[in-house]
UniProtKB/TrEMBL annotation:
Biological process according to GO: transmembrane transport
Organism: Tessaracoccus flavescens
GO terms for cellular component: plasma membrane
Protein name (database record): ABC transporter permease
Keyword Membrane among record annotations: yes
Top-rank lineage group of the source organism: Bacteria
PROSITE patterns listed in its UniProt record: ABC_TM1
Bilayer-crossing regions: 29-54, 98-120, 135-155, 233-254, 289-308
Keyword Transmembrane helix appears in the UniProt entry: yes
Family affiliation: Belongs to the binding-protein-dependent transport system permease family.
Stretches assigned to the ABC transmembrane type-1 domain: 95-307
PANTHER family given in the database record: BLL4140 PROTEIN, DIACETYLCHITOBIOSE UPTAKE SYSTEM PERMEASE PROTEIN DASB
Keywords: Cell membrane, Membrane, Transmembrane, Transmembrane helix, Transport
Length: 316
């Protein structure tokens, strides 16, 4: 008698992939697929240039021959490029000049944008959309064009302001050694006040109407509402715009470069970015220029970090 044994066959359901598992896998990859274009651009335009600049700041390139036709040697330089950058008195002076610029210009601009934002969001404000667009419009003008426009008010013989002041015996010199820095500050303030104002306006719009109604019931005046309600609640936006302004101060480049052609007081290393640009493209010393760029980034980070620590300590 023969016994036949048959292997149990697996159910068909076990041989077919689970649709739930497929959906879970697709959901896990969906965010990365959406982020892939941004991440690719971020790596190519931000991460790789920064890492390249840091790497070049620690290397030294020696060219044999006039144009390096006899060979190019790259070697590790340690902190030699940083020492050379810090020994450049013009570069150090440019950082000090921008610190003075920021100490004066940033607070003035922040006060202006806060006042404008509060006025535009006031209950009695008329045509707020028109004035918001008008104040923001200078930000849409490129820095080079804005500097050219303002130079017509700075250059003697072209400026009506200088001619009018001369009629009253007042001599104005917007491009002199002691005034050109504040002429640049005026251009920057004119360009970026509206931009910072919009950020603060966006923060003001998040304040619930119930808060204003409660203050009205309590008989609070407009000044009291601004001081006790609006100013404390827009603090995050003010901190954000101040940090942006501190970083932008050290990145100043277009305005002094354009005014350099009409103001002898502006040299080729007037600002830190202009100094790094001159070192790279006028002196062909890209490694020292990379070290200067890294130092500028470090100074911006230190200043921003110190400001954030100070504001956080006061809030506590």
């Amino acid at each position: 008698m023969t016994t036949t044994t048959r292997r149990a066959e697996k159910p068909a359901a076990l041989l077919v992939p689970s649709p739930g598992r497929h959906r879970r896998n697709s959901k896990a990859w969906a965010p990365w697929a959406l982020l892939a274009p941004f991440l690719l651009l971020f790596i190519l335009t931000f991460a790789i240039p920064i890492l390249t600049a840091v790497a070049q700041s620690f290397t030294k390139v020696t060219r044999q021959g006039v144009f390096g036709e006899q060979g190019v040697t790259t070697e590790f330089a340690g902190f030699a490029n940083y020492a050379q950058a810090l020994s450049n008195q013009n570069f150090i002076a440019s950082i000090g000049r921008m610190l003075l610029f920021g100490i004066v210009q940033v607070p003035v601009m922040m006060v202006l944008c806060i006042i404008l934002a509060l006025l535009l969001e006031g209950a009695s404000a008329r045509w707020p959309a028109f004035f918001r667009a008008s104040y923001f419009m200078p930000y849409g003008i490129p820095g080079v064009i804005a500097t050219i426009l303002w130079s017509f008010l700075y250059v003697p013989g072209l400026s009506p302001l200088i001619d009018i002041a001369a009629q009253f015996g007042i001599e104005l010199d917007f491009l002199g050694p002691n005034t050109v820095l504040w002429s640049i500050a005026n251009i920057v303030t004119w360009s970026y006040t509206g931009y910072n104002m919009l950020i603060i306006v966006a923060q003001l719009k998040t304040i619930p109407n119930e808060v204003y109604e409660a203050a009205k019931v309590d008989g609070a005046s407009s000044w009291r509402v601004a001081r006790s309600i609006q100013l404390p609640l827009i603090r995050p936006a003010v901190i954000l715009t101040t940090v942006f302004s501190i970083i932008g101060t050290l990145q100043l480049f277009a305005e002094p470069q354009v005014l350099q052609s009409v103001s002898p007081a502006i040299n080729s290393e007037y600002t830190p970015n202009l100094s790094a640009y001159t070192t790279a493209f006028a002196y062909n010393d890209y490694n020292v220029a990379a070290a200067q760029a890294v130092l500028i980034a470090l100074v911006a980070f230190i200043l921003s970090f110190a400001f954030l620590r100070l504001t956080n300590r006061r809030s506590k």
